[in-house]
Amino acid sequence: MTVRALLSADETAAALETLAASARSELLLCLPRLAPDRPLVLPELRERGLETWGDLLALLSRRGLSLRILVADPDPLLAVQAHRAAWRRVSGLADVLQGSAQLVCAPHGNVAHGLRGALLRRRLGPALTALRAEDPARLTPVQRALVQDGASPRPAGIHQGFALADGAHAVIGGPDLGTDAASVMGLRIADDDFCGALRGHFADCWADALNSGASLAAPASALDSPSRPQSRDDLRLLRTLSRPARGFAPRTLANDAEPALIRLFRHAQRRILIRTGALCHDGLTQALAQAAQSPDLHLILLLPPETQGTWDDARAAVLQGAVLTRLRHAYGDRLALIADPQAEGVLCLVDGTTVIGSQTLTRRACRWNSEAASLVRDESLTRSLLAHLGAGLSGDPDRAATWAARGPALRVPTGAPGRSLLPDDLF
Questions:
Q1: Is the overall model pTM greater than 0.85, yes or no?
Q2: Domains in the chain, start-ordered, CATH in brackets?
Q3: Number of H helices, E strands in the chain
Q4: N or C: which end of the chain has fewer CB within 10 A?
């Protein structure tokens, strides 16, 4: 088992390029925001005349290795700009891929029905009206279909970020993996069991994408995965996977992160640091609150200052505010609430264990979406990530007061969430 922390966008970019360029038989990419015009950073690739990721993928596709690229398609009405950006990227990738390389752009396959599905369609009504008023030339193929057929609300999404070469080498992180965002961190992992489990997860997601998405290169076919290794206790794949179901929500098939995190919280003794895009999960909140009974345990939460991109940002903010208020009562001055505009996905440092991946700590991310994270029990790895996040701190990085002194403090919304016909799992 070899695990190395990637602490910046440049380190992550170099690891992804090395992984892709060294692939011999198979390369699987699930990098939601990787752009074909993203410049390469490795000098040895640039010396060969390769300037961008498009150049690298074109070369790999000409070699004839098995190349499959899954690009997540954000909601075309709820996230108009993100959806169009995804289609620009996937169109650019389609222009450079050759031979048998396969490229699929897909949303999660579940469409909400019933009364709650009708409520979501109603929320999408103004966006659909605005879309119909736009120049048709600006619309993506998905948006042009919506103009004709109406909205299809999808309460779940695909947010995972990872790359896998030859079933033995992986880079995994959040949905910003493969970008130059300041928040980018990840892990490079060489381990047959973990990578075998991750390949099986990709095969499942790829099969679902063939049913819900669009193929833009060579005809897409299923990925054979007869062997499904189980990752070990010291290096585990934590995945979320669901399938379409009748009614509102999809049917959960894999929910690894939730029970794994609850067990970690229950046994924490020294420090829990969580950097994530959202915290709104009753089971995880209860486990965190119960862990506060350990008198020396400190909780450090790094969260975005504003709640954005949900079906109802105001309600999502109030729900998260109720969670933070409960934790404040449980921990008192052993809790630090820090505003982090770059927080996305999840980085969780619990004593000597690290969890890093795409899931935010919401029930939607832990039960409905397509997500992937890694759990690594390695004190030195945890300490290196903690030192990176806490660069410039004056004091013990395991103590909440140290982080609170640096700030900036997170504003906690007040007020109790009112009644809603939409389930809290949606937020």
A1: yes
A2: 2-215 (3.30.870.10), 235-415+422-426 (3.30.870.10)
A3: 14, 18
A4: N
